[in-house]
Batch of 2 targets.
Target 1
Amino acid sequence: MSGEWHDVGSLGELERDGRVIASVGGREVGVLLDPVGDRLVAVRNRCPHQGGPLCAGVVSERIRGRPGTYDLERQSVLRCPWHGWEFDVESGICRDDPRMRVAVYPVKVDNGRVLVKA
Amino acid sequence: MERKQAATRRTADVGLIDCDVHIYGVDEEILSHVDPAERDWFRLQGGVGLPGYPFGHPTGWFRHDSEYELGTRDGNSLEATQHQLLDAFGVDVGVLTASYGLAVSLMTSTYRAETFARAHNEWVREQWLDQEPRFRGSIVCPAQEPRAAAAEIRRMAEDDRFVQVLLIGGSERPYGDPRYLPIFEAASECGLPVAIHSGGEAVGVAAPPGGAGMPSFYIEWHTLGAAGSIMAHLVSLLCHGAFDRFPTLKVLLMEGGVAWLPGILWRLDTNWRALRSEIPWLERKPSEAVREHVKFTTQPLEHTDGHDKLLFEMLEAVGAPDILCFASDYPHWDSDDPAFMLRRLPEAWRETVMHSNAAALYGPRLALATA
């Protein structure tokens, strides 16, 4: 993916608030902590379903199971705060309707600053 | 009369299968299959011990030209059904769906229910299947006592003229509830579809229809109760992952209407996207299991005030014509003439709905009937 690295905030701010949201190239992008992979993920802050603020949602392990049992999948998803649809944080694909996909971006930390490539 | 002959000609070449044929008999005939130690109890209850409806049909449950009701057949509807349904309508195979026996799951005593289910199944075998090779039977069972129901299913499945397990819409909980697993397990093991026929809502041990309390009239029950229980069982079976537990299970939903189906499935799929974590075993949209595992009988196909095209388009969106099986519901007041159904159905659907879907659902047990 071509693009520039953009400074979206400090790591301290992200750790304090659980997320940072910034405008990158005219689009809102959120960076969130993925507690499952102990890493950062960058996702466009707009749910492709109805346009809700996706990055206000929670990153957690997706639940799966066999009839009558519950288990964790060890796969992180971001759950939209509006209707609860879940998006794979690596591919951006909606696990509940694979026809939908949200943009995801490379993210890194450099000298205490959070950088997103877009 | 001319119209009936035309119906026979047109349906004969598609091998017409009727999935809903109700049967009636003399009480003592059925009770002759009950052990003498219990027989008097059934005799003394009235209505052979089955709980009654809180509201009856205002002008009678039967087609008024039904030869059975006219009393010309000594209280047993066998000959009337042979004449008025099989011969007049050109039905090649009729699947018998009980009448009294449907209500066995509504009885308060599970012991009596077990007894009556056994007696009813034996009566169907002797008085119907032994008499007419064009009939196939349904196994009734006491669903309120699932382990006993499973035993009865396994016992009767040995007679391959019985083609399905038959449950009634009225129930204590919707049938996806784990308490009913023994029934679905037995049916799956025996390779039998499970048919759920509307009726019995608010009767005996069954819950009233909907959550709004008891309706006042038969018309309310027939509109909402009958459709509502079928919707509830469908949603329950899907949410509990019945088709993940039993990958070969087929379910036939009977006499609950179909026009609501797209609405319920779209609603369920929408909810599933947000609420999936509650039922995480459903990996796919719930509606996808319907196409593979569930069929619906046509009667009473909603009248649409000229919007049949719209109805069929909506049904197509959720899997029709592959999910529809013709049913007459003979000899009830709202039964459908197959010629009427043929006129309404899109031409490309006719063979599928009148024959192939049911033939695939019942498999080899049905084919024997035409031998």
Target 2
Amino acid sequence: MRYKLMVVAIFVGLSILLAGCRWSQETDDVAFITAIGVDKAEGEKIKVTFQVVIPRAVSSLQGIGQEIQGGPTMISSIVAPNITEARNLLATSMSRTPNLSHVQALLIGEEVARSGTGDIVSSIMRFREYRGGMFMVVVRGKSEDFLTSTKPKLELLPSKFFEAFGKSSEQVGYYLRVEVHDLYLRLKNPGGSAYATYVGINPLTGEDTPLDTKMPNDKAKGYLPKDIPRAGTENPTEFAGTVVFNGDKMVGAIDTSETRILAMLHNDLPRGVFTLDDPLEPQHEVSLNMRNGSSPKIDVDLIDGREVIKINVFLEGEITGIPSGINYEKPEYRELLEAAISDVVTQEIQGLIRHTQELGSDVVGFGYELRSHFATYRELRETNLAELYKTASVDVKVTTKLRRTGLMWKTSPYALTATSE
Amino acid sequence: MEGLANSLTKIISSLKNLLIYEPPSIPTPFVLEEKQSENESEKPAESSALTESADELNQLLRFAQHLEATIEQAKSAISQEPTPDKIDSILQQIKVLEAQKAELSPILLAYNSGENTESRNISASLEENSLIIKKIFQVSDNEDIIIRDFFIPTNPPRKAMLVFTQGLVDNKDITSSILMPLFAVKELSGDILEFLITKHLSSNQAKQVKDFQAIVKGINGGDTALFVDGANGAILLFTKGFEHRAIGRPQLEQTIRGSQSAFTETLRTNITLVRLTLRSPDLVTKMITLGKRSRIDCAVMYLQSVANPDLVAEVKRRLSNISTDNITAGMLEQFIEDHPGIPFPQILSTERPDRVSSHLSEGRIAVLVDGDPFALVVPISLFTLFGSPEDFALKLPSGTFMRALRYLSAFVAVILPAFYLAITYYHQEAVPTDLILAIAGARERIPFPAIAEVLFIEVSFEFIREAGTRIPGLLGQTLGIVGGIILGQAVVAASLISPVTVVVVAITAIASFSIPDFRMGMAVRQIRFLFIIAGATLGLIGVASGLFVVLGVLSSMKSFGVPYLSPIAPKTTPGLDTMVRGPVYRQEQRPDELNTQDQSRQPPISRKWEKQRTEGGNVTDELSTR
Amino acid sequence: MSYQPGKMGVAAGTAIVFTTTFTSFFLSVWSVFTDQAATAAWLVPSINAVCFLSLFWIVLYVMQRVPGDLYEVAERLLGKTGARLITLYFITTFFIDAVLTLRQFAENTLLTAIPSLDISLVAGWYVLIASFYVYLGIEPIARAAYIVLPVGLTALTLLLLGLYTKFHLYNLRPWLGDGLGVLLKSGVPSSGFYLHTFILAILAPAFQNLRTIRTAALLGIGLTTIFRTLTLIMYMGIFSVEVGREKVLPFYEMARLIYLSRYLQRVEAFYIILWVILGLATIAIDLYMANYLLTRLFNLQSMRPLILPLAIIAAQLALIPADIATAIELNVKADTIYFAAGVLVVPVVLLMANLIKGKRKAKSCATN
């Protein structure tokens, strides 16, 4: 009797195992999509561009890993009413099932961003194959062009390219790594406004087209993608600046230096090199490597229905270059330098806030700090924090301390030169 | 005419011989036929009623003949002048016959002949005894048993007989301690056997026995039996002296530090080795005979003051209640364990005496079987199987590190291929993009599905392993290495198997070899195949369900009343010996689950010298500030 | 009786309590809390624990006066009918919990692991393994749960620590959510989630004494509450209310967000192992208790013939809710109404009966 029972149990178990086996997918039955781009097409449709990676290109087996013509990826653009339909249509052109669990970046063309990204993002958050950790990027131009021209020479695969881009943002601050998850949170929760990374294709001509909102004393210019003066053989794509949203519609962009300030206010700037006029010899420039000393203290208050913001930033710095040869390591000179950089940063913060108030987008997230002023959540939900931000008054205070001076602790002046007629 | 006919016949027959092929006459090949008889009766013909009565009558007849001969002698002696010698011899014969008479009452006779030959009592007549011995040992066919008849030189001489097995006895011993003293006996008085044992026989162990069962056991073991005419019993003398293997190094459980002697096949030597390491008067050995035909001795050893008496009684009960023909230690394990169907071993088998003695002092029981160099230790838990004999010699960090490594290797050996298959089949999102692309790229040209690859390589490794154990000596080891390397390399180069699979399976195989216990390793290997199937069909769900089921099976097992996963599962006081190997001087309690009589084995402070003051000299005593 | 529960100690008791109360946390319960109590949802487990423990103490107090396990206590105090009613109630609670957990875990599997599998197969597989464990008895279940416990807790702690960078304290403000009233309205009925701590009282003969039961209950509920609170704090801090109440699988989504470096990411697949094991353990415990109480109720000789039919019935019932939203709603309704009723009613009734009986005895003694 016991054996009969065991046999029955084994058969039942075996039938379930075999049923599960049906849904297994070999690694050579799936095609990994590593990036998705969304552009506007005529009518109500969108043009979806898929970037699929070819595993043969990364294979270690001999005789297989030779250069595949056209690079290790293939690009396919499909016009469809939405992304899901586009994916269905993609499967008609490939011999393998598309697999979306390794999508590294979601690129949205500027047109689509300006008309509203809500439906795209929400369908992504629902389907289980997409992950919230995808890089969220708005392309200045068309995302199809962006994907076709991304040919990184340093990386073997563009997927690693996108994944690794997040790392280098920490070192400079000229662009931020934004994930779809963060965007979605900001869309739904009352508080701040959403933002995304701004990318573009550089014409690689070396032309210099900075924005003209410039801070005095800041020698670095603010750029948006496509404008950076660059030439050479490397990748024409570049990540620079941040796109700001109001709700789910893009309303404008902030450039690289403003992005750096944004990162600083988010306590997310491990390294950022500022270049400013030398206080004592304005024709030379001093470069300083700044980072957040501690988290910026942001106090937001609601006084008479008006939002009052007090920002207190504490920076630490390291001197990385003194071309003028002045001994800024001495305390009194150092204080000059500290005052100068604090001044520059203060003005940049005020500039950022002004710019975002014009655009009506609270990217820094002051609305979040306002939450504790409400007694219940319902009140919070019914208050329009974005409107409040537009008329907020801001008070900024920046303190800098220069801690390190690089390899030299005392700069000696240059030797005397001969007088020239 | 006849000559012509003759020659014609000759010609024809020679032609026939030339032309016709006659097969050589070979005898028909031997075929083991079914037994003709239908009935399954085991009783040999001797116990049928007719043969019984024939035996009785024969015995009576022999007695009658002896009686008649004695009467004749007495008659002739009385008619002539009797010499004192003759009178003595006749008197002796009468005494012998008297002694034998007691056995010849009809009831006893019927009882004796009805019984199995072996369970009969020893008769007083040497002739009867000799006949019985010849029947029991099949002496007509069996040339190993030697029967040495001789006369004890009393006045008148007494017949006596020595029975022993050639090869099992030490010949010098028989000569010097049995025959020589016996040939110097001048007179016999009182109880013959008692007299000989206490006054003449110089063998160091001598025992009187009354029935043939003891005789048979003794002779089969290497003792010598001494029968004397007229004595109502026999003497078993210890003369064991067979050839055996010397104490050698342990083959399977080698250590770097620690003793290098291992058990041999002789039971007495093994018991000795254990006693040498645990010289306590409390160490008790009890012998139990196993097997109906093999009659192997097994010794049960335990510390009387420590081991739980219920446990001891249970072990003895199980051992004495096995009935089978032939038994060795490996088979004994399966006979007495609680769950013989589950591959996990519930009895520890070791060939090192120091390991046995350390387990005995924790309160466990050891069973040693004659003829097997492995001792069985009961009861154990899963974690005992993961201890190597080196553990006692290592310090705290190394001990813990080695333990952790072993547990990790056991886990890896079970799970790794199943994990790999689950992830490549169902959970491609579970690994970073680079890794999955590397795996996918490596598998582009492979014609087999992943599960076929894994099974193929696993089975090949099992072939190599099995082949390596069959080939002796150095060649076997090189075969393993060469086979593995060449097989792996060639199969990858031919694009039959992806390199990732080879790596995964190779790591698994090596991990499974680092499990100290051999049977545990085999259990792990079997479980691994089940996990591979579960992982390849249901992904990580299958792996998790498999883990859960194995956990359940392990938690429900008991080894001689002790749950298999103590001290973790029923949470008993841990003794710093399961996961983390504590320092030796802090192992104060015996394992809680054994419920021993005496729980503590070390006082809280074992290193007493630390608290003492050093004496002598002007050493500033920092201990005084503690 | 061949289905004696055997002997268990504090460790096994803690494991049982923790498993049955915490496993619902792998399902959609958090989203419901977040929906009801807004930003103060993280206080709900503590309220649950306080409510429940105070009522459970009453039961233990009564059991101190009256010997035996819960069935015998009820029999002595309320008569045979009362005891039978209570046992019937508990059988239904265990069965409902088993069925709903089975359904939700099967949905969970489909959503996270193998999307295209048929749900009846998954439910059948889970129930097959759970019934294997029921066949083995409560001791192996408790021991297996106890072994998995530290591993699971460590994994949870690592999860919480790994998400530290995404945590923002401002998401938890305003502190009191929608007000204390809403909080209590959400917190008090949901102490029904802790109903199955009563297993300790039902299986009382297996534990050495009431002190063991008390320690096990405290430890188990304490652990559950601490971990529930911590995970809810983390969840609210990362997702806040609006996004938090949408999720069907909060735990899975949280695990998905872990990104510590290029190689320490995508760990949610390994958490599948954890919740599959804990889910199977919960279903096994529930089915075992249902079986055990049925045999107790009808005074049957053995539990074994009942295992398979109950398992099949559970699997069939699990497939009845039409979709996952209905299943979640059913679960919440069952826990907050039906189970909460048991949590409130049973101890109070027993206490009343004890007091009345005590008075009656005093009266009868006094009149003598």
